[in-house]
């Protein structure tokens, strides 16, 4: 399954290369929301919140009202998770708060699952140089994405694996790295980071993984084909 991605920064829809270099920006969020309407899932990430330099709450709420979105970026507390759900998110994507001192924070994971329900939690296990990377991809932990997925499985309903090293490069995603996460958990797994072609998406589907795509869509490299078309 193809899941289109909307990344927000400074009130705009943007795409970054490896989370750092701005590749494109547009104010036309309405146009992209409309283009994504045929798709059952859309991923919405608040990059400002992820980088702890503000948030795009009003725009997030407007987009969530227009269509169902799973939302991430800066969700580091139970209160923040509840607020994002109140703004209209169907699920929260949580990353940094699930790790502390370079290790997995099972205590917080359990508290979050109890507070909002495991079924509404997507655990993000973003990886760079082989280990989970948090806080806007600025800080590395000491655990692999597969280790994190194995440990966090009781506390979420889905995992989002992003290969930071290939994010935005439109050169494909390392399938073996995705396969390792897929083998570590029985939960739903979604992958992102460099996915560019329908061949990439098919390769992921073959191992039971959905695909989040951003850059390839926004640059026109991947033509949007509505489900069932």
Describe the SSE topology.
Blueprint: E1 2-9, E2 12-17, E3 21-26, H1 29-35, E4 43-46, H2 47-50, H3 57-66, E5 70-72, H4 78-86, E6 91-94, E7 99-100, E8 103-104, H5 106-116, E9 121-124, E10 127-128, E11 131-134, E12 139-140, H6 145-152, E13 158-162, H7 175-184, E14 188-192, H8 198-206, E15 209-213, H9 215-218
Parallel strand pairs: 1-4, 1-15, 4-5, 5-6, 6-9, 9-13, 13-14, 14-15
Antiparallel strand pairs: 1-2, 2-3, 7-8, 10-11, 11-12
Give a brief rundown of this model:
The chain has helices at about 30-35, 45-50, 55-65, 80-85, 105-115, 145-150, 175-185, 200-205, 215-220, and strands at about 1-10, 10-15, 20-25, 45, 70, 90-95, 100, 105, 120-125, 125-130, 130-135, 140, 160, 190, 210-215.
User: How far is it from the N-terminal to the C-terminal residue, by CA?
Assistant: 13 Å
Helix content: 25-40%
Q: What is the residue-mean pLDDT, rounded to a whole number?
A: 95
**The CATH superfamily title:** Aldolase class I
* Level-2 CATH architecture: Alpha-Beta Barrel
- CA-atom Rg in angstroms: 16 Å
Which structural category fits the helices and strands?
Answer: alpha/beta
Number of strands: 15
Could you spell the SSE succession in H and E letters?
EEEHEHHEHEEEHEEEEHEHEHEH
| CATH topology term | TIM Barrel
CATH class: Alpha Beta
Number of separate helices: 9
Shape: globular
Strand order of the largest sheet: 1-4-5-6-9-13-14-15
Strand residue content: 25-35%
As residue ranges, the low-confidence spans are none
Number of domains: 1
Quaternary class: single chain
């Amino acid at each position: 399954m193809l899941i289109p991605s909307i990344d927000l920064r400074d009130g705009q829809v943007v795409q970054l290369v490896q989370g750092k270099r701005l590749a494109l920006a547009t104010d036309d969020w309405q146009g992209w929301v409309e283009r994504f309407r045929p798709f059952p899932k859309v991923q919405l990430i608040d990059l400002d919140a992820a980088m702890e330099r503000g948030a795009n709450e009003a725009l997030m709420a407007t987009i969530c009202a227009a269509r169902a979105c799973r939302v991430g970026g800066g969700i580091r507390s139970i209160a923040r998770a509840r607020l994002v759900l109140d703004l209209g998110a169907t699920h929260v994507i949580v990353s940094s708060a699930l790790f502390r001192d370079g290790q997995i924070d099972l205590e917080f994971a359990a508290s979050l699952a109890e507070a909002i329900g495991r079924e509404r939690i997507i655990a993000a296990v973003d990886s760079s140089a082989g280990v989970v990377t948090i806080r806007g991809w600025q800080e590395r932990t000491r655990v692999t994405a597969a280790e994190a997925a194995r440990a966090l499985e009781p506390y979420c309903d889905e995992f989002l694996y992003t290969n930071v090293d290939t994010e935005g490069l439109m050169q494909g995603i390392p399938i073996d790295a995705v396969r390792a996460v897929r083998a570590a958990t029985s939960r739903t797994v979604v992958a992102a980071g460099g996915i560019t072609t329908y061949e990439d998406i098919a390769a992921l589907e073959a191992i039971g993984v959905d695909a989040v795509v951003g850059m390839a869509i926004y640059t026109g490299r991947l033509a949007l084909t509505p489900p069932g078309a």
